[in-house]
Amino acid sequence: MVLAGILITALGFIISVLSLGMTSSVGGRMVMVLIGLAVSLTGIMGVINRAYLKNAIWRK
Amino acid sequence: MTAVKRLPLIIAAALWAASLGMAQATAPAAPPAAPITANDVKNVETPKPEVRVKGDPDGSLTGTVSDIAVSDSKKGLSIGDALNQIGQNKIAINFVWTLITGFLVMFMQAGFAIVETGLCRAKNANHTMMMNFMVYGVGMLAYWLIGFAIQMGGVGGVANLGGAAPLNTEWTFNLFGKPFGLFGQHGLFLTQGGTYDVAVMVVFLFQMVFMDTALTIVTGSAAERWKYTAFLVSSFVLGAFTYPLFANWAWGGGWLANLGTNFGLGKGYCDFAGSGVVHSVGGLTALAVAIIVGPRIGKYTRQGKSNAIIGHDIVIVLTGCFILAFGWFGFNPGSTLGASGNGSLRIGSIAVNTMLAGMTGGFGAMFYMWLRYGKPDASMSGNGLLAGLVAITAPSGFVNTVGACIIGLIAGVLVCLSVEFVDRVMKVDDPVGAISVHGANGLWGVISVGLFADGRSNYGGSWNGVNGSVTGLFYGDAGQLVAQLIGVGALLGVVFTISFVVNLAVDAVVGQRVSAKVELEGLDLPEMGQLGYPEFELKARPVVAQ
């Protein structure tokens, strides 16, 4: 689960960088970068952090 | 008013108008400038020794042509000597400016130390102070050995400091037909690659204290349960690799700075003094470490309800905030790397933007807390001030005062919302609010450049190699906002990921967290061997439910 989160977080960055080569329009790049940011945030908050919360010290 | 009483006013007004008219009428046309000859330079009078020996109470005899270094004493003073002196004076002003502002930034370590210690419990005071104290040395060692070369080894010169020419080797690869700079290669130990150089030393000092600021942010989020050994290893890696890598991309001639020249996105990624480079890097690493270390015992109930664990000294917390606000006058205005030439006189504007954003940040947080919880919370007001300062760090050199106030105000509210989100939704324990103050507001600062930059700054006619001034979306350049967002993507996708993986490795090798017994006892004795307050009787205090 944590490994998946790491990969998803990094994937968001790759999407942002790919916007540079896939289109030259500012609007197109903006959309791709925002998608990349959403993916990274999902990786951090939705996957990595959630994995740690499952075994959190306060649950024990 | 009677006519008699008005008479002096009328006379004064008439005299003023007449003098104005006379001045305009009789002002002679400026004579054509005559070229300076070698004789002019040689014939400049110098104070005679018999006059000089009587002292110089008004300072008019000190600092004259006789103080200019002469290259050939037989020929005497030449125009070349005078011009060299002018050049050296400019660089000297910029050296002194950059060094002194660097010293101010160094003093921020003291501010961070007492803010974090005050927000922690008394039983962990020594441990928290020691982390903040030793992070200075650990970071400096890592940066001198490796980090500086990675960050600045390929910057290609710093004009305001007279060159720093040896920093000229960047490792790049091609992507989409354009060069992507990844890391510098000159400057290991400040000797390799010809970097035993006066300008390089100034660059090193200034950049080193910035790097250390990022490192000390992490100690706050992991305080009160972070194993000291893990702190040392984690901080070393952050100072040697993670921080310098992103700093190279933004400030060292790397690919983010060149988004403008290579892809036409505004002036490339612009981060004037480090909302992203310093604060987001520190804040996101703080998030990674806080997730791995886990919350303090008692922070959450079995049902996941958050408990407030109150710090032990609000007095030193707010004193620390003041020290930080003072140090920020080094952080932002100092980032011109000079006070003379290339638009550096904007330091006044940058300093005012800095203080205004801090002010609105403090107000934003204070009023938010007052309205939401009924009291103007002291620690969150302090965090609001810091949030405003963090947010204005990237845009301070590119925005006007109205923009600065708006950026700071949003930051002040954002820090409160973010603290609540991190605490209650993410359930990540951050004793000092470092993730929100530096992480969230660092990202906000980066984005705000792409919105509020007014296109009126002019640092030598270009920025990041693109002609013109940095201009945000609200002033007509949407491409700048895209460049900033790509920087945010790199911070989230690369910096967080690297920090997380590094700290997972540290956890596996040395363990990140102290034992429950040590945590309950307090980290001072078990980890440091000495209490922070040995003459105090420390009593366990029940945590207060929010």
Describe the structure.
The complex is a heterodimer of chains A (60) and B (546). Chain A is an all-alpha fold and 60 residues long. Helix content of chain A is 83%, strand content 0%. In chain A, helix 1 runs antiparallel to helix 2. In chain B, helix 6 packs parallel to helix 9, helix 11 packs across helix 13 and helix 12 packs across helix 13. The radius of gyration of chain B is 27 Å and the shape is globular. About 1% of the residues of chain B have low confidence. Chains A and B meet through helix 1 and helix 2 of A and helix 9 and helix 15 of B.
Task: Tell me the layout of helices and strands.
The complex is a heterodimer of chains A (60) and B (546).
Chain A: H1 2-22, H2 26-54
Chain B: H1 3-26, H2 38-42, H3 49-52, H4 79-119, H5 125-152, E1 170-175, E2 178-184, H6 198-221, H7 228-251, H8 259-263, H9 275-293, E3 307-308, H10 314-331, H11 347-373, H12 378-393, H13 401-425, H14 434-452, E4 462-463, E5 466-467, H15 478-509, H16 516-521, H17 524-528, E6 544-545
Antiparallel strand pairs in B: 1-2, 3-6, 4-5
In a nutshell, what does this entry contain?
By secondary structure, chain A is mainly alpha-helical. Chain A is built from two helices and no strands. Chain A has helices at 2-22, 26-54.
Distance between the termini of chain A: 20 Å
The stretches of 5 or more residues of chain A where confidence is low (pLDDT under 50) are none
- The sequence of SSEs of chain B as H and E is HHHHHEEHHHHEHHHHHEEHHHE
Question: Spans of chain B with pLDDT under 50 lasting ≥5 residues?
Answer: 17-23
Mean pLDDT of chain A: 96
SSE succession of chain A: HH
Largest interface: A-B, 35 and 37 residues
**Largest β sheet strand count, sense and barrel closure of chain B:** 2 strands, antiparallel
Please report which band the strand proportion of chain A falls in: under 5%, 5-15%, 15-25%, 25-35%, 35-45% or over 45%: under 5%
SS strand fraction of chain B:
under 5%
Tell me how many strands of chain A there are.
0
Number of helices of chain B: 17
Supply the number of helical segments of chain A. Answer: 2
Helix fraction of chain B? 55-70%
Radius of gyration of chain A: 15 Å
Give the helix/strand class of chain A: mainly alpha
Strands of chain B, count: 6
Radius of gyration of chain B: 27 Å
Oligomer: heterodimer
Instruction: Please tell me what the overall shape of chain A is.
Output: elongated
